[in-house]
Design a protein that fits this description.
The complex is a heteropentamer. Chain C is built from 11 helices and 12 strands. By secondary structure, chain C is α/β, with parallel strands linked by helices. Chain C has an 8-stranded mixed β-sheet, sandwiched between helices. Chain C starts with a strand and ends in a 6-residue tail after the last strand. Chain D is an alpha+beta fold. Chain D contains 18 helices and 17 strands. Chain D has a 5-stranded mixed β-sheet with strand order 13-12-14-11-15, sandwiched between helices. In chain D, strands 1-10-9-8 form a 4-stranded mixed β-sheet, covered by helices on one side. The mean pLDDT of chain D is about 90. By secondary structure, chain E is an alpha/beta fold. Chain E has an 8-stranded mixed β-sheet with strand order 6-7-8-3-9-10-12-11, sandwiched between helices. Chain E has a 4-stranded antiparallel β-sheet with strand order 2-1-4-5. The longest helix of chain E is centred in the middle third of the chain and has 18 residues. The mean pLDDT of chain E is about 85. The chains are: A mainly alpha, B mainly alpha, C alpha/beta, D alpha+beta, E alpha/beta. At the A-E interface, α8 and α9 of A face α2 and α3 of E. Bound molecules: adenosine-5'-triphosphate (2 copies) and magnesium ion (2 copies). One adenosine-5'-triphosphate binds next to β1, β2 and α1 of chain C. Chain C: It is found in: Cell membrane. Chain C: This is D,D-dipeptide ABC transport system ATP-binding protein DppD. Chain C: Keywords: ATP-binding, Cell inner membrane, Cell membrane, Membrane, Nucleotide-binding, Translocase, Transport.
Chain lengths: ~300, ~325, ~325, ~525, ~325
């Protein structure tokens, strides 16, 4: 009983220890911490947008042409747009879409790409590999933005559909990344060792190979968060994606761009918001990379 | 070498074939009657019916595909609904315009990126390095359309040294068509002033387009240079008395370029994808804008044509880049990839 | 004696996160002109670092709190750029530990040899002359078909060939000192034998000095006049070749020797307990103290200096004070 | 700096694509191109009447069933051929055969066209068509021989092959004041003055005319600021006009053009199939905000026909915002209490960015009634495609509509007659026999007063069904270089003259003037 | 010696790897017909230069490679098939320790997880027992319990190799292949590991196939030595006899090349045979005796005739034209 407790205790300690170590590696680069803080702030403000945004109803069906195009002031910190809506409030709500896009796409894309890449990589030299990787190549042969646009053009432009579209063009990158790693990892001596011990294929693919792919996958995920959000912004820039009145960052920039430079705040602030959110995820990604690096 | 090239091409054809199936079926899911769309709502039914037959819309989908593929192989991509011309004609006209931008952009991307990367690595942890890193972060996190807008603002108003719209200035006539690229054609025609004008029109869109990739390339070059700096062979080369400057620009650079160039194929392919944003803003009649217009207007044949051409370009770029990488890195046999 | 290299009380630290790795801890070392000296010691004890200091090719994290490294009487640490260049081009050459890693993977052997030759300060070099010199260098290390090798990349060569190429590079031009850093670790015994014979032969022919770094006591014994034993950033013992093997003084040397499997059989000793110390927090006194069966109080507090036991046999251990 | 010949130019931006083939074009940009490239038998005046043009005079026979036109002699096509009755006959036949563009104006009525002699051409109508003369401003005369020489075999038109469509995409066969010099797809069309134009030339008339296909606000504004654009398109955001107005030497012309903005309601699709629901929507919209803040200068619509068009019925009231009434109507509708289940889909046209403001305003207004509006921005191409079928036509679509000739009948026919269902001009899917009959009857009436009365009747009937919410009669805005060009339409606007010209004729370049020295002075 | 049971018998084993040179397919004859046996409780030393086919032999025996030709018989059963087709219990009975301790342990797994795998796969322990068994395994390789939750990168190279040995021991095998288990380690660590392996052998009555290129080491651990050269066995003899009277010219060259630390050892080396020539590429083995490019005693017939194995003493076999 006592022994049990002691070991429990040490398990907790171990996790604490690992966590401390991870944090230590992560926080070595101050910029990563800045990235983390910004990401957390953005997520919080998106989740609690209703409380954070000064004019929550401006994110919905609302226009007030009497207050259109107001420059930044204490009433409207970032000014108002051509519809008389508070830009700050709309940016905060737009984070929702951006995050949904980023997270939604990655949640779908990463497991699919990873599993396909793992299987193809482990089965190198078989028909399964050929089929999987050639399919991947086909999807890879197009710039993501173009493929996403093509798909969006066929379907109704909604946030969900543009997420689907981005997913279709995004998974092959993970498949290829993981495939590359899996093909070299399957020759690693420890994989051979597990095979010789008699471990199952499932074990080898998911327990031996997969954990060693995780660091690059996570790193790519963090960086991709930014890219996906940018792609989403580019899609909404041409009018695909989130539909009005729901705010989307890309739409805000593209619409506001018409009024440059006189009404600069209409597009510059959302553009800065895009840059900040992407930058934050990039910084976070760098930190995650440091954290997951195996060097002591 | 020859065999590997053939193998690669064979594989690419397979990929393109897959792509054609994918794209053909995506483009046929579009709602609406393309023949009716082509002729307008008030066209007489018999003309529409004729067109429908001409477009093979009355046949089963797989037959349509076979016919389409046959046409594609023979350079016939059908007619565009928007421009009402054969898609091939459109592509011949628009593709060179975009190629011009993309090629310049790719050069800016690679040369600029590598240059910044080198400077940054050379002066690690100095203010210069810091500045370049901040710029690369900004480059990576800002979409091309933001850069384009910024450039139009700067050069449209404050500093009107570069034109911000179209391919040529008013009054300048296009050179006789050889390649379709105005810069090349004007040089071929020996018309320097047209060349200068055409080139000036390329500068801003190309740079706006290149910013993201350039930043990326700078970052990759920098980190791979720093990485390689710690390698034994660099120490060895220094120890053998080779001047550090030479070691840096020759012996360190070449291996460090490998990752940059490998990633470049993706970056350059992405240039085509992003080009439309820039073409939109600079009112540049390019291929990407054509493609997007086609997509937004559900112009089937144009969509399929554009995507196939992009696929071919992508695959070609990939092969070229693979060869460059193989040149940079003799360890990589081409069959390996 | 006329020293070619003299290292005095050299400290080299590496800045890493969490402080400094205090790797070299007062190294004393000397090498006469035309002398062959070997440094032996376990992995990570600082052999390579010491040598890199001589050529001033330490990585940028390195920090030298104290010490001097004299090459032909001049302190390398205070040399001007041009002097360093001369030192590297004409004075000393280093054959690196791992021949694969020390050849640039993306340039041909010819390219690399040419670069070495053309930067060695020899006058009136043209392309043809450089080529001739390169081919000669390859011939000297007994590589067959040097023409073909010039156009090949390192990865196309076998380990033995690569190592010979490295030697060729080091010996392509006249230098006073050759530093061979474990030149045969990755090679087979018979090839190792060939390489060492070649090295000996070339050094003898030119009258160069040689520093041979190895962790094989056998190799040291068969190839050097004098042997330094290094442990955790210190030279712990130095002596003439035979003397060291017949009369090892330092407990570390003694235990190390006992671990070497003998051709005469008779089993192997139990090995030295413990591990090399953590360079971030090394023991304050003698660095071997935690693993030493003879350690006493003084060992824990004070760092031992060399005690001269006569005949050039010196040992850094308080046992002999 | 010196004035070069190419400085004598009028550059106009307009939405792409531009079809310069009279058999195909019909949109705003097409009309501008056609009006300047081709000649018509008659020429429109702002008051809705027409004056002789290619035809020096005409006879109306058989109670309006036969029209005989006597052509001007010696009119030259751009290639030097003389324009004869054969060409008129060919042009009409081609238009009817192809059936696209403005053909619909004639398909129902024109039974036969015949060149009587070299300079006389006769149209036989199958039924009387009151506004026939007015509609002839859309019959552009092509050079028959030239077109025939450029026909491609293998087209949809039987022995006529492609009817010259491919060639006419980038070439012209006209006799108008300007001849096409260069067509850059997706970019611009450039015309050069036709020196032999029969109508003669003013000394300051522009030597060149260019229609560019870009409406990106920044680009447009930059070009205006650099004096590289003389007249802008009408699709800019209000803010952009305001900004351009501030540029020295640039003014914004605001003039009623006979177009109106329609919120077309799909009367066959729930919930807009209920007239009470439609009325509720009509009563909740804040029209004042629209004409003061979004489209200032425009006026409230009175019924389906813009007030400036001859034949408009001024007795029809404008819609007013009245929430009480709206609620009342909503209560009467069968969707009352089930509004959540019936969101209203609303599309607006991506090429007209200002419509977004409207869409959002309507959305916000409707929300006050509890009606949920889902907004979609749609490229015009998509909109046309979706209009093909009732199922794909959204509940509501915001669309500018222009008359094709200056009379109420043009609007009524193209908007509310059943035959126009499936086109973007009728997304109401009204298909009401009574209305069809009223419209047909009116159009078949030759006497103008009688016809106008019948128009009024039809307008009232349509108003009662409320298939459309007529948001406002558009005041077109275009920024132009007032400092160095003379633009008749702008002058009329300044003088507050009433009336309007059919689509495209406001940009009739022949009557404009350019002063390049003044332009250079501004640079 | 010959009384004890033969547990592994390799007969005429061949393993060729195809390699593609341009459009041609050549074969690397990594092993080209070898015969040897391992008896219960003994340590057979497999010695040879890099590329001579030692690892390939080991991998064929363990089942990582399918064999090109020949048979492998283990405890009377023919096991000349790849690991996928081998029964689970066979995998339990035969284990391997790889050369590089850095790569043979999954860097993402703790020592606990690494040791757990064989136990779980073979159902050898469950629940509480599992933990105890793992601790016991660690103890048997002289590692403290505190190592359980460490990752391989946190411990030294020697300790990693001990974990690898513990993993191999987990299934209670009777036969273990040790593929250069100490070649990348320091002498002092090597000494520790070798001593431990010898102790374990006694404790569990293990048979070893011990691969190395260090003859001095072999002298101290093996009961019998097999010398390989370019995929073939050059000489095979009990250790004592081998070191007393090496017969094959290659063996002599090998022995005379060993650097040693005492005069006494020096005397044991055969008369200096100068090592010369490069090892030929295994894709392109010269006709006749494969050693003919380096042999100081080469005769004209060596360029034509590939020698066969002959017995020159009790349990002592040589494959050289000098003896036939
Ligand atoms: N650039 C560096 N940064 C941090 N630590 C370093 C650096 N270079 C060397 N070290 C550390 O210094 C110690 C000594 O390294 P060195 O390479 O000199 O050892 P060595 O005796 O040559 O070992 P080996 O026999 O493995 O070559 C090692 O622990 C190494 O980790
Ligand atoms: N998978 C493979 N494909 C092709 N050739 C191989 C493969 N594995 C081994 N070889 C070749 O077979 C020959 C024997 O290799 P093996 O690894 O068995 O040698 P070894 O004696 O273990 O050498 P070392 O001491 O370097 O480990 C070598 O020439 C090697 O290049
Ligand atoms: Mg070293
Ligand atoms: Mg091996």
């Amino acid at each position: 009983m006592i022994a049990q407790k002691a070991s429990d205790n040490s398990a907790v300690n171990r996790y604490l220890e690992n966590f401390k170590k991870a944090w230590y590696k992560f926080s070595r680069n101050k910029m990563s911490v800045v990235g983390l803080v910004i990401v957390v702030l953005i997520i919080l403000s998106a989740v609690f947008a209703h409380f954070v945004a000064p004019y929550p109803h401006h994110a919905g069906a609302f226009v007030n042409y009497a207050e259109a195009n107001l420059a930044p002031s204490w009433d409207h910190l970032l000014g108002t747009d051509v519809f008389g809506r508070d830009i700050l409030s709309r940016i905060i709500y737009a984070f929702r879409g951006a995050l949904t896009m980023g997270i939604g796409v990655l949640v779908v894309v990463v497991p699919i790409g990873t599993i396909i890449g793992l299987i193809a990589g482990y089965m190198k030299g078989t028909l399964i590999e050929t089929v999987l990787m050639r399919i991947t190549d086909v999807f890879l042969a197009l710039p993501p933005l173009i493929l996403a646009l093509a798909v969006c053009a066929v379907m109704r432009p909604t946030l969900f559909n543009s997420m689907m579209a981005v997913c279709i063009s995004w998974w092959p990158w993970y498949a290829r990344l993981v495939y590359g790693m899996a093909t070299s990892l399957r020759n690693e001596v420890y994989v051979r060792a597990a095979e010789l011990i008699g471990a199952s294929r499932f074990h080898i693919i998911f327990r031996e190979i997969l954990p060693n792919c995780l660091a690059p996958i996570f790193t790519k995920m963090m960086l991709d968060m930014g890219w996906v959000i940018l792609t989403g912004a580019s899609l909404s820039f041409v009018g695909l994606g989130e539909q009005p009145p729901t705010p989307a960052l890309g739409t805000m920039v593209s619409d506001g761009a018409k009024y440059l430079p006189d009404y600069w705040w209409i597009s510059i602030f959302p553009a800065i918001a895009i840059m900040i959110i992407v930058l934050a995820f990039n910084l976070l990604g760098d930190g995650v990379k440091d954290m997951l690096s195996t060097e002591e | 070498m020859g065999i590997n090239l053939l193998k690669r091409i064979g594989l690419s054809i397979f990929v393109l074939f897959g792509l054609s199936i994918l794209i053909f079926f995506i483009s046929r899911v579009v709602p609406g009657d393309p023949a009716r769309l082509a002729l307008g709502p008030r066209a007489p039914e018999w003309a529409v019916e004729n067109l429908r037959q001409e477009m093979h819309l009355d046949k089963p989908l797989y037959v349509q595909y076979a016919l389409w593929l046959n046409g594609f192989v023979h350079g016939d991509l059908g007619k565009s609904l928007v421009t009402r011309r054969p898609v091939t004609t459109d592509i011949k006209e628009f593709l060179p315009a975009t190629l011009e931008i993309v090629i310049l952009s790719a050069i800016v991307l690679l040369v600029g990126g590598v240059f910044l990367g080198i400077i940054s690595a050379k002066f690690t942890n100095t203010w210069l390095d810091g500045l370049i890193r901040i710029i690369s972060y900004l480059g990576i996190v800002s979409p091309a359309f933001v850069w384009a807008i910024i450039f139009v603002l700067i050069f449209g108003y404050a500093l009107p040294i570069f034109p911000t719209m179209e391919r040529l200035s008013p009054g300048v006539t296009a050179p006789p068509t050889v390649t379709g690229m105005y810069t090349v054609d004007s040089l071929l025609a020996g018309d320097m002033s047209t060349f200068v004008d055409a080139f000036k029109h390329l500068v801003l869109p190309a740079i706006a387009l290149a910013m993201g990739g350039m930043a990326q390339a700078a970052r990759i070059t920098r980190s791979s240079m720093l990485d390689n700096m710690g390698k034994d062979y660099i120490a060895a080369e220094k120890a053998y008395g080779i001047p550090e400057g030479l070691v840096f620009v020759k012996y360190l650079l070449k291996p460090s370029l490998i990752p940059t160039v490998s990633v470049a194929s993706l970056d350059i392919a992405a240039l085509f994808g992003n080009a439309f944003l820039v073409e939109l803003i600079f009112n540049y009649p390019g291929f990407s804008r054509y493609g997007i217009t086609a997509m937004l207007n559900k112009d089937l044949n144009a969509i399929a044509g554009v995507i196939m051409i992009l696929g071919i370009i992508f695959v070609t770029i990939n092969i070229i880049i693979d060869f460059i990488v193989a040149y940079l890195d003799p360890r990589i046999g081409l069959a390996g990839r | 004696m006329d020293d070619l290299v003299k290292i005095q009380d050299l400290y080299v630290w590496f800045k890493v996160y969490g402080g400094y790795m205090k790797v070299l801890n007062g190294v004393n070392f000397s090498l006469g002109k035309g002398e062959k000296v070997s440094i032996v010691g376990e992995t990570g004890c600082g052999k390579t670092t010491t040598m890199k200091t001589i050529l001033w090719i330490l990585s940028s994290q390195a920090y030298i709190p104290k010490g001097e490294v004299l090459f032909e009487g001049k302190d390398v640490l205070k040399m001007k750029e041009s002097e360093i260049k001369r030192l590297r081009g004409r004075g000393a050459a280093m054959i690196f530990q791992d021949p694969m890693a020390s050849l640039n993977p993306v340039f041909t052997i010819g390219d690399q040899l040419a670069a070495v030759i053309s930067n060695s300060g020899i006058r009136d070099l043209d392309k043809e002359k450089i080529r001739q010199l390169s081919i000669n260098a390859l011939k000297e290390v007994k590589l067959p078909d040097p023409d073909r090798i010039l156009g090949s990349y390192p990865f196309q060569m076998s380990g033995g060939m690569r190592q010979r190429i490295c030697i060729a590079m080091a010996l392509a031009t006249e230098r006073a000192l050759i530093i061979a850093d474990e030149p045969t670790t990755n090679l087979d015994v018979t090839i190792q034998d060939q390489i060492l014979a070649l090295l000996r032969e070339m050094v003898a022919k030119r009258g160069n000095s040689l520093i041979l770094i190895t962790h094989s006591m056998g190799i040291a014994r068969e190839n050097a006049d004098r042997i330094y034993v290094m442990y955790a950033g210190n030279m712990v013992e130095v002596s003439d070749n035979e003397e060291l093997f017949s009369n090892p003084l330092h407990p570390y040397t003694e235990m190390l020797l006992s671990c070497v499997p003998k051709l005469s059989g008779g089993g192997i000793a139990e090995g030295i307990p413990g591990r090399i110390p953590d360079y971030l927090n090394p023991p304050p006194g003698c660095r071997f103290e935690p693993r030493c069966p003879y350690a006493f109080k003084r060992c824990r507090e004070e760092k031992p200096d060399f005690f001269d036991m006569g005949n050039g046999h010196k040992v850094a251990c308080f046992k002999y004070d | 700096k010196e004035v070069k010949p190419e400085d004598s130019i009028i550059r106009i931006t307009e939405d792409w694509p531009v079809f310069i083939d009279p058999g195909v074009g019909s949109k705003f940009s097409d009309s501008i191109a056609l009006v300047n490239t081709y000649d018509t038998l008659v020429f429109p005046k702002p008051d809705g009447t027409v004056v002789p043009h290619l035809a020096t005079k005409w006879d109306i026979l058989d109670n309006g069933l036969t029209y005989r036109f006597y052509l001007r002699e010696g009119v030259k096509f751009h290639n030097g051929d003389e324009l004869t009755a054969e060409d008129v006959e060919f042009s009409m036949k081609r238009l009817l055969d192809i059936g696209e563009g403005f053909a619909y104006l004639f398909t129902r009525n024109v039974a036969e066209v015949k060149a009587v002699d070299k300079y006389t051409v006769e149209f036989k109508l199958s039924q009387p068509f009151g506004p026939f003369l007015q509609s002839l401003v859309r019959l552009y005369i092509l050079n028959k021989d030239e077109v025939l020489a450029h026909i491609q075999k293998n087209g949809q038109y039987g022995e006529m092959g492609d009817y010259g469509k491919n060639w006419l995409l980038t070439n012209d066969a006209g006799s108008g004041p300007y001849k096409v010099k260069e067509v850059k797809m997706e970019e611009y069309v450039l015309w050069e003055k036709f020196d032999d134009y029969w109508g003669g030339w003013d000394a300051d008339a522009p030597k060149y005319f260019k229609l560019s296909g870009s409406v990106e606000p920044i680009t447009v504004r930059t070009a205006v600021g650099r004096r590289e654009l003389e007249i802008t398109d009408e699709l800019q955001p209000l803010e952009n006009y305001n900004m351009m107005d501030k540029i020295e030497g640039v003014d914004v012309a605001t003039f009623l053009n006979g177009h109106n903005l329609n919120m077309m309601l799909n009367t066959k699709k729930a919930p807009t199939d209920d007239v009470h629901f439609r009325r509720a929507l009509a009563y909740c919209i804040d029209y004042d905000a629209i004409i003061t803040s979004i489209y200032p200068g425009s006026s409230l619509s009175k019924g389906p026909v813009p007030a400036v068009l001859p034949g408009h019925d001024p007795t029809i009231p404008s819609f007013k915002r009245d929430l009480e009434k709206a609620k009342e109507e909503l209560k009467k509708s069968k969707y009352y209490g089930k509004l959540d289940q019936y969101p209203v889909s609303l599309s607006w046209c991506a090429e007209a960015p200002e419509e977004e403001k409207l869409a959002l305003l309507i959305q916000a207004n409707a929300a006050e009634l509890g009606i949920k509006i889902e907004i979609t921005k749609k490229p015009f191409g998509s909109m046309m495609a979706d209009a093909q079928k009732m199922e794909t036509t959204p509940n509501a679509s915001l669309v500018f509509v222009a008359p094709h000739y200056n009379e109420a009948g043009s609007m009524l026919m193209s908007r509310y007659h059943s035959s126009s269902c499936g086109t973007w001009e009728q997304m109401e899917w009204l298909q009401d026999e009574n209305i069809d009959r009223l419209i047909e009857d009116a159009l078949a009436t030759v006497d103008i007063n009688e016809r106008f009365e019948k128009y009024a009747k039809a307008q009232k009937a349509i108003f009662d069904l409320c298939p459309t919410i007529w948001l406002f009669d558009q005041a077109e805005k275009r920024a132009y270089q007032s400092a160095y060009i003379y633009w008749p339409t702008a002058e009329r606007a300044l003088k507050k003259e009433t009336g309007c010209l059919p689509m495209g004729y406001d940009q009739y370049v022949h009557d404009m003037k350019v002063y390049p020295e003044k332009r250079l002075a501004l640079l | 010696m010959s009384e004890s049971r033969v547990i592994l018998e390799v007969k005429g084993l061949k393993k060729y790897f195809p390699v593609h040179r341009g459009d041609k397919t050549l074969f690397v004859k990594a092993i080209d017909g070898i015969d040897f046996e391992v008896r219960e409780g003994e340590t057979v030393g497999l010695v040879g230069e890099s590329g001579s086919g030692k690892s390939t032999t080991a991998y064929c025996v363990i089942g990582m490679y399918s064999v090109t030709d020949g048979t492998i018989v283990f405890k009377g059963k023919d096991i000349s098939c790849a690991s996928a087709q081998r029964p689970l219990e066979l995998k339990r009975d035969m284990q391997i320790v790889f050369q590089d301790p850095g790569t043979s342990l999954n860097p993402q797994h703790t020592i606990y997880k690494i040791l757990e795998l064989p136990l779980k796969v073979h159902g050898l322990a469950k629940g509480h027992e599992l933990h105890d068994r793992i601790v016991q395994l660690l103890e048997s390789v002289e590692l403290p319990e505190s190592y359980l939750y460490k990752y391989p990168r946190m411990i030294g190279g020697g300790e990693r190799q001990m974990v690898a040995i513990a993993r191999a021991l987990a299934t209670n095998p009777s036969f273990m292949i040790l593929d250069e288990p100490t070649s990348s380690l320091d002498v002092s660590v090597q000494a520790k590991i070798i001593n431990m392996l010898l102790r374990l052998q006694k404790e569990y009555n293990l048979s070893y196939l011990f691969i190395t290129h260090d003859l001095s080491l072999m002298r101290n651990v093996a009961t019998r030595v097999v010398i390989m050269y370019l995929g073939k066995i050059a000489e095979m003899a009990p250790t004592e006899i081998f070191f007393r009277s090496p017969q094959h010219p290659y063996t002599q060259m090998l022995l005379s090349s060993i650097p040693v630390v005492t005069q006494q050892e020096e005397d044991l080396k055969p008369k200096k045979i100068k090592s010369q020539g490069e090892i030929p590429s295994p894709v392109n083995v010269p006709p006749g005796c494969s050693f003919n490019t380096r042999c100081p005693f080469v005769k004209p017939e060596c360029y034509e005739r590939d020698p066969v194995m002959v017995q020159v003493g009790p349990d002592h076999f040589v494959r050289c034209n000098l003896f036939t």
